[in-house]
Amino acid sequence: MLISAPPYFRLGSGIWASTPEPTHHELLHQYTTRTHELLAHNQECIPDDDRLHVIVKAAMEARALYFVSALQEPSTGDLDRYFDLFVICSVFGIPNFNEVPNES
Predict the structure, then answer these.
(1) Per the domain annotation, does 14 fall within a domain?
(2) Whether 69 contacts 56, CB under 8 Å
(3) Which of 5, 32, 62, 71 has the fewest C-beta atoms lying within 10 Å of its C-beta?
(4) CA distance 85 to 87
């Protein structure tokens, strides 16, 4: 059974569980720093703090959902790559996303 307690959650063994607020803030800070480094590495302008906060929270939630929905338990590296990809797609967009598929 999936129990969601946003914004304070942590995944363990595929179950969502409440976590104390300080833990949430530590994770938020950790992933905000990761996002800053990722965007700086890609020479991208860093969004304003409010927008960056939205992107980081959405990426954290997407990462959590990926963990729950994966057929095999992903490694921490897999989860971090998923987070990074989500951030990159949020900032740069998804290539060819708006193109209409060829009807052959």
Answers:
(1) no
(2) no
(3) 71
(4) 5
